User: Which sequence fits this backbone?
C-alpha cells in the first residue's frame, strides 16, 4: 500500500530502533498545552497587579524615609496575599494535573511483528495500531484492514451517529470504535493530529473571566483617585506650613489606607472557599475567578450531545399497521411497559409488534452490560442498535437465545452510502432477509407491507405522513423491513422504531432555575432542526415564538443581521465548530457574559472564547477539559446552577468587603483633608493609619466573608455587578458612612488637640477604630437591620470583633505599643464619649435601611 511506503513501515509494524528515532524526530504523541508554571512563577504572578505596584512603590518610599515599622507592616501584608494566592492556584493546578493522569489511555500496536500494549503517548508515525470495539483511537491513522469498523466521531463533529469506515479511510485521534475491528497505520501524532491543531488554536485565543476585568477597571479608578488626592493633600499641607517629610509620609500612609491592599487577599480567600464548596459538589474550578464569573453570566449556551442529553438512545415509540405503540423505560435498563392508545397492553397479544421486535433484535449487533460497581448500564457497540436490543428485551427477546433459534447466515454492516444495514437468518427453514436503516432509503426498496402474518399492498403516502409525525416529535426513526429471499428487492415494510437521546433527569429543572435567575439558556447542536426543537422544548429552552437558526442559514447572514435576531433565537441547529465560535463572539460583542458548555474536541475553541468555559469530566475530551475554566466531574448539569448561586454569593461577599474597606479609607481621607482645610494638625499619625488599615480592617473584612449566603440570590431582581463592581446603592452607603465616621472623628479630635496632642491622636485612632467595629456589622446586609440578623450566624465576625477590641486596648494601654503608635491611656469617661459618637454610624445606617425597606 502507498501509505506504508510513504511512512517507511510494513504491516508488521516498526522495530525498536526505528521507534526511538521517530520519537526523537516527531516527539511524543501528546497534545500541545500551555507550559505548567512552577510554584515560584505562581508566587511572582501574585504581584502582577496595578494595586500591588502602587503598594510596592509606597513600601520602597517609606523604607527610604527610614520608617521601618511602616515598611515591615506593608511588606507583611503583601507577602501574606502572595502566599495565600500561590497556595490556592497551586492546589487547582495539581488537581487538573491529577485529572489528566487519570484519563491517560493505552494502545495496542505491532512492534517487531508482535502485539504490545503501550501508553498512547509513545505512538509514532508509521506504527501499526490494532483497534477493537470500545477503544479510543490514539492517533490519526489510515485503515489498512477493516472488519465492519464503525467509529463514533461525535467528539469531532458533534454527531452521535457512528460512521462506517473502510480500507483507505482516515480515522482521527480521540474518536471511539463503536463496533468491528481494524488495523491502521499512524500518519500523524501529537500536535500534527486534527485534535492537536485545534488545541494549538486555543492558545491563540485570549479571554479574561469577568471578575478579572472588573478588578482591572476598579484598580484604574482607585489609582487615579489616589494620585489626584495625594497631589491635592500634599499641596494643601505645604500651603498650611506642614513639613515636606510630614506631608509625604502622610500621603503615603493615606494612599496605603485608600488602596485596598487587603482586597487581593480577601478576594482570594472568598474565591478559594467557593472553589472548595464547588469541589464538594464535583465541580473542579481551574481558575479562582471563574466560580464568581458564573454568577455574572447572562447566557448559558449548552451543547446538546452529552450535556443536556445522556447520550443514551431509547426506543419510546413504535409504528406498526397504522398504530403507535408507546414504550416506557429509562436509558438502557431492559424494563418498561407498552401502551396502545394510552392503555397498557400485553405485547404477546400483538403478534406484529412481537415480529418487529424479534427481527430488529436479530439484525442489531450491540451489547448492554450492567455495572454493579457504578450501578449503571454500559453499551458496547452502536447506541442505536443497543436501544433496539433493549426494546426487544422489553418485549421478551434476548439476543443470545434468538441467535441460537435463528442462526445468522450473513451480516452486512451499515452501508454509509445506502444508509441501511442487513442480515440473513435461517427462519422456518427459509433464508430470511432483515433490513434496518433510514426510512427514506428503506421505503424506497419496499413494495409491500407486512400485516397480521402476511404481505399486503403498501400505502407509502400514509406511511410517509406517520414518519413525518414521528420526526416532528424529535424522534430518530429507524425503518425495519423483511423478505424471505436473497434479493434486496420487493421487501415488505414492517414498521418504524422511534427513539430519543434521553434528556438528563435534572436538566429541565436546572434550566428553569437558571431562567428564574434571569439567565437565558440557549442550545447549540449539530442535530437536525426538528430534533433540536423537540429536545429544546422538552428541556424548557425553546418556547413558542422563539426562533431556530441552522448553520447554513448562519452562513448566509451577516453578523449585523444575526445580531438583530439573536435575542429571539433559542436554538442553533446543524452547526459546526466555526459556527459555535461565531455565536459566542456575537453574544460577547453585545456585552453579554456567556458561559459555554461542551465535551467534544469541536467545542474547545468556543469554550475558550466564552467568558466561562464548562466541560464534562467523565465524557469530555482532554482538549475540552484543557480549554475550560470549570470541569463538571460528574457531568451533572445541575451543578452549573449551584455554581451560579455560589458565584452570586461570592459577588455579595465581595461587595460587603469593598464597602467596608472603602468606607474606612474614605473616612480617613475626609478626616485628614478637612483638618488640613481648617488649618488643624493632622489627626492621625502615619503609623496609626497603617495600624487601622492592616489590623482593624484586615481582621474584620476577613470575617465578613464567612457570612451566610443571602436570600433571593437566584431571583431575576438580583443586580449583577457593573464593570467597576460598585453600584448606586453601594456609592450611597459609602458616602453616608464615610461622612459620619470622618466628621465624628474630627469633632472628637478638635476637643482635645489644643490641650493634649498625644491624647487627641489617641482619641482619633480609637474613635475611628470603634467606628470600624460597628461598621463591620452594618455591612452585613443592604436592607436587613443588624438587630434582625442572627448575631451568631457569623461566629467569625463575633470572634474577630473581640480580637480587634483586645488589640485596640493593647494599643492604648501597653507601654511598648504606646511607644510605637504614639498613644496614651484613656479614661472610662473618654471611652463613653467615643462609643456614643461611634454608635452614630449604626443609627444613621439603620435609618437608611428603614427608608429602603419602606420604599
Assistant:
Amino acid at each position: 500500500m502507498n501509505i506504508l511506503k510513504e511512512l517507511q513501515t510494513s504491516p508488521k509494524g516498526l522495530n525498536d530502533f526505528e521507534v526511538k528515532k521517530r520519537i526523537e524526530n516527531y516527539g511524543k504523541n501528546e497534545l500541545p498545552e500551555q507550559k505548567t508554571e512552577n510554584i515560584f512563577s505562581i508566587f511572582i504572578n501574585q504581584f502582577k497587579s496595578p494595586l500591588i505596584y502602587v503598594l510596592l512603590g509606597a513600601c520602597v518610599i517609606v523604607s527610604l524615609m527610614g520608617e521601618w515599622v511602616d515598611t515591615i507592616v506593608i511588606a507583611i501584608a503583601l507577602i501574606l496575599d502572595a502566599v495565600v494566592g500561590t497556595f490556592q492556584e497551586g492546589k487547582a493546578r495539581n488537581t487538573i494535573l491529577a485529572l489528566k493522569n487519570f484519563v491517560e489511555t493505552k494502545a495496542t500496536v505491532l512492534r517487531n511483528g508482535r502485539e504490545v500494549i503501550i501508553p498512547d503517548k509513545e505512538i509514532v508515525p508509521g506504527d501499526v495500531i490494532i483497534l477493537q470495539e470500545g477503544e479510543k483511537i490514539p492517533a490519526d491513522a489510515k485503515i489498512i484492514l477493516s472488519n465492519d469498523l464503525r467509529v463514533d466521531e461525535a467528539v469531532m463533529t458533534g454527531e452521535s451517529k457512528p460512521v462506517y469506515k473502510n480500507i483507505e479511510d482516515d480515522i482521527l485521534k480521540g474518536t471511539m470504535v463503536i463496533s468491528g475491528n481494524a488495523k491502521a497505520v499512524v500518519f500523524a501524532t501529537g500536535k500534527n493530529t486534527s485534535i492537536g491543531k485545534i488545541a494549538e488554536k486555543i492558545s491563540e485565543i485570549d479571554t479574561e473571566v469577568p471578575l478579572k476585568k472588573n478588578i482591572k477597571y476598579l484598580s484604574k479608578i482607585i489609582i487615579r483617585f489616589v494620585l489626584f488626592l495625594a497631589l491635592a493633600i500634599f499641596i494643601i499641607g505645604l500651603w498650611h506650613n506642614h513639613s515636606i517629610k510630614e506631608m509625604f509620609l502622610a500621603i503615603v500612609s493615606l494612599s496605603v489606607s485608600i488602596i485596598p491592599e487587603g482586597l487581593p487577599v480577601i478576594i482570594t480567600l472568598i474565591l478559594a472557599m467557593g472553589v472548595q464548596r464547588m469541589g464538594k459538589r464535583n465541580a473542579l474550578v481551574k481558575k479562582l475567578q471563574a466560580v464568581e464569573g458564573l454568577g455574572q453570566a447572562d447566557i448559558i449556551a449548552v451543547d446538546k450531545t452529552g450535556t443536556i442529553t445522556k447520550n443514551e438512545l431509547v426506543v419510546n415509540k413504535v409504528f406498526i399497521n397504522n398504530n403507535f405503540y408507546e414504550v416506557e423505560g429509562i436509558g438502557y435498563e431492559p424494563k418498561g411497559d407498552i401502551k396502545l392508545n394510552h392503555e397498557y397492553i400485553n405485547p404477546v397479544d400483538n403478534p406484529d409488534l412481537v415480529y418487529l421486535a424479534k427481527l430488529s433484535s436479530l439484525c442489531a449487533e450491540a451489547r448492554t452490560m450492567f455495572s454493579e460497581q457504578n450501578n449503571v448500564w454500559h453499551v458496547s457497540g452502536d447506541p442505536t442498535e443497543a436501544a433496539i436490543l433493549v426494546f426487544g428485551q422489553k418485549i421478551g427477546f434476548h439476543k443470545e437465545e434468538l441467535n441460537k433459534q435463528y442462526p445468522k447466515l450473513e451480516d452486512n454492516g451499515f452501508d454509509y452510502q445506502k444508509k441501511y444495514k442487513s442480515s440473513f437468518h435461517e427462519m422456518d427453514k427459509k433464508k430470511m432477509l432483515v433490513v434496518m436503516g433510514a426510512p427514506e432509503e428503506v421505503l424506497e426498496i419496499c413494495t409491500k407491507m407486512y400485516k397480521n402474518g402476511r404481505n399486503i399492498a403498501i400505502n407509502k403516502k400514509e406511511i410517509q405522513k406517520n414518519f413525518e409525525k414521528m420526526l416532528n416529535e424529535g424522534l430518530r426513526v429507524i425503518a425495519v423491513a423483511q423478505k424471505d429471499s436473497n434479493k434486496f428487492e420487493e421487501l415488505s415494510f414492517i414498521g418504524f422504531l422511534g427513539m430519543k437521546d434521553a434528556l438528563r433527569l435534572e436538566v429541565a429543572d436546572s434550566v428553569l432555575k437558571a431562567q428564574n435567575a434571569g439567565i437565558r439558556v440557549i442550545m447549540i447542536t449539530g442535530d437536525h432542526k426538528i430534533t433540536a426543537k423537540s429536545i429544546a422544548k422538552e428541556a424548557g429552552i425553546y418556547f413558542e415564538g422563539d426562533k431556530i437558526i441552522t448553520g447554513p442559514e448562519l452562513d448566509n447572514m451577516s453578523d449585523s443581521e444575526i445580531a438583530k435576531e439573536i435575542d429571539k433565537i433559542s436554538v442553533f441547529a446543524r452547526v459546526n465548530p466555526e459556527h459555535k465560535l461565531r455565536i459566542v463572539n456575537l453574544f460577547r460583542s453585545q456585552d453579554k457574559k456567556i458561559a459555554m458548555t461542551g465535551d467534544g474536541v469541536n467545542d474547545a475553541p468556543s469554550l475558550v472564547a466564552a467568558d466561562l468555559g464548562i466541560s464534562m469530566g467523565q465524557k469530555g475530551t482532554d482538549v475540552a477539559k484543557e480549554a475550560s475554566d470549570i470541569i463538571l466531574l460528574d457531568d451533572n448539569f445541575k451543578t452549573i446552577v449551584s455554581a451560579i448561586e455560589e458565584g452570586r454569593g461570592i459577588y455579595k461577599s465581595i461587595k460587603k468587603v469593598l464597602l467596608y474597606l472603602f468606607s474606612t479609607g474614605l473616612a480617613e481621607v475626609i478626616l485628614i483633608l478637612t483638618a488640613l482645610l481648617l488649618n488643624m494638625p493632622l489627626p492621625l499619625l502615619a503609623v496609626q493609619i497603617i495600624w487601622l488599615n492592616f489590623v482593624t480592617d484586615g481582621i474584620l473584612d476577613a470575617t465578613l466573608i464567612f457570612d451566610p449566603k443571602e436570600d433571593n440570590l437566584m431571583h431575576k431582581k438580583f443586580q449583577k455587578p457593573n464593570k467597576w463592581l460598585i453600584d448606586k446603592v453601594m456609592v450611597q452607603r459609602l458616602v453616608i458612612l464615610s461622612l459620619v465616621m470622618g466628621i465624628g472623628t474630627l469633632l472628637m479630635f478638635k476637643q482635645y488637640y489644643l490641650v493634649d496632642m498625644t491624647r487627641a491622636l489617641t482619641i482619633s485612632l480609637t474613635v475611628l477604630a470603634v467606628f470600624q467595629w460597628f461598621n463591620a456589622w452594618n455591612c452585613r446586609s443592604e436592607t436587613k437591620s443588624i438587630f434582625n440578623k442572627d448575631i451568631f450566624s457569623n461566629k467569625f465576625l463575633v470572634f474577630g470583633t473581640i480580637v480587634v477590641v483586645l488589640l485596640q486596648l493593647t494599643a492604648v494601654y501597653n507601654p511598648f505599643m504606646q511607644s510605637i503608635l504614639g498613644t496614651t491611656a484613656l479614661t472610662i469617661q473618654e471611652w463613653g464619649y467615643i462609643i456614643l459618637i461611634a454608635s452614630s454610624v449604626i443609627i444613621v445606617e439603620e435609618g437608611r435601611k428603614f427608608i429602603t425597606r419602606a420604599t
About this structure: Residues 638-677 form the longest helix (40 residues).
